[in-house]
Amino acid sequence: MKKAFYFVFLTISVLCCSSNNSDVTTPGTDNTAIYFPPINSNTWKTESLANLGWNTNKLQPLLNYLETKNTKSFVVLYNGKMVIENYMNNHDANSIWYWASAGKTLTTTLTGIAQEQNLLHINDKVSNYLGNGWTNSALEKENLITCKHLLSMSSGLDDALGNDVSANNLKYKADAGTRWAYHNVYKKMQDVIVEASNTTWTNYFNSKLKNKIGMTGAWVPAGHFNIYWSNTRSMARFALMIYANGKWENNQIVSENFINEATNTSQNINQAYGYLWWLNGKSSYHLPNSQLQFDGKLIPNAPNDLFAALGKNDQKIYIVPSKKLVIIRMGNAADTDNFALSSFDNELWGKINDLIE
């Protein structure tokens, strides 16, 4: 049975929620106020579909579609306020789920924070932090790889060798910056941050991001790396902070300049890729496990300014500044297993457009 939780707020008790602050808004770029839910409360202000002028008759068909597509949770924020919060397929507001590669953008954000603290710079070579021999490449090739190459998936390391990112499995394929390939070597950026900050990844993440915006959740070991698990609202909190140009209330969590850089094309091969963020509205794109270039937009039905965190089996964060939207989808694969983009993205946006336009 469907469980539609429009404007009903359930207690969220996943792991540890954090500290202070009250119900605050901050000016948006168009002189409207972005709403931020309080850090130490389960309340979240709402906005009705009717007030937004959306087509309320299209809501239930959208939810029906999501349920048949193995969705567990679906959230829509408008300028920070909750418009839709829906749970299905034995999931609820207290349930946790994995972010998969949508969580790569957490690493991006921590990188921006560390750079703002002058702990690192993304144009530095990775070996400045990890020492020589962090790959199985010749030293002159290893020294070409910068932190920016890790964030932009252009390290030149061989992506066909599996998920193991130990030195023996990181082999030269091409010079850094000359080849785009979806590769878990981005995880080495977490190691860079650990070395630069002289603390653990979890401690740095909790103190610089999680606790400051009221997220819950934890990093859970999964093979050769850790994956973030949380409830849906925690993913929505993170996405809202990014939508607000790196701010939470009056606190600048990560610099606006870095957010702008991270959500624009990061290299000259895959136009639709920033710093671990996927970008819509470009004239071409590349996908994981392929060296082919595909012409056209990443998600044709979606607005051009959309940028997204896309995780395995259709974990989704969509951020659309022009529409003031943050959209979250968690669940199992809508159709077949996938790494990032799938046909579900475009189908879903067709139905979202029916609702909002």
List keywords for this structure.
single chain; 357 residues; alpha+beta; three-stranded antiparallel β-sheet; 11 helices; globular; disordered N terminus
Strand content: 15-25%
The percent range for helix content is 25-40%
Strand tally: 16
State the shape: globular
Strand order of the largest sheet: 1-5-4-16-15-14-11
The CATH C-level name of the domain at 3-94 and 223-356 is Alpha Beta
**First CA to last CA: what distance?**
28 Å
The H/E string reads EEEHHEEEHHHHHHEEHEEHEEEEEEH
Structural class: alpha+beta
CATH topology of the domain at 3-94 and 223-356: Beta-lactamase
Description:
There is one protein chain. With 357 residues, this protein is α+β, with helices and mostly antiparallel strands. It has a domain at 3-94 and 223-356: Beta-lactamase (3-Layer(aba) Sandwich), CATH 3.40.710. The chain contains 11 helices and 16 strands. It has helices at 49-52, 59-68, 104-116, 127-130, 139-142, 147-151, 188-197, 201-213, 232-243, 256-262, 343-356, and strands spanning 3-4, 24-27, 33-36, 71-78, 81-87, 97-98, 218-222, 225-230, 247-248, 251-252, 278-279, 284-285, 294-295, 307-311, 315-320, 325-331. Strands 1-5-4-16-15-14-11 form a 7-stranded antiparallel beta sheet, sandwiched between helices. A 3-stranded antiparallel beta sheet has the order 6-8-7. Strands 2-3 form a two-stranded antiparallel sheet. Helix 3 (104-116) packs parallel to helix 7 (188-197). 48% of the residues are buried. Residues 1-23 and 27-31 have low confidence and may be disordered. Residues 1-22 form the signal peptide. GO terms for molecular function: hydrolase activity. This is Serine hydrolase.
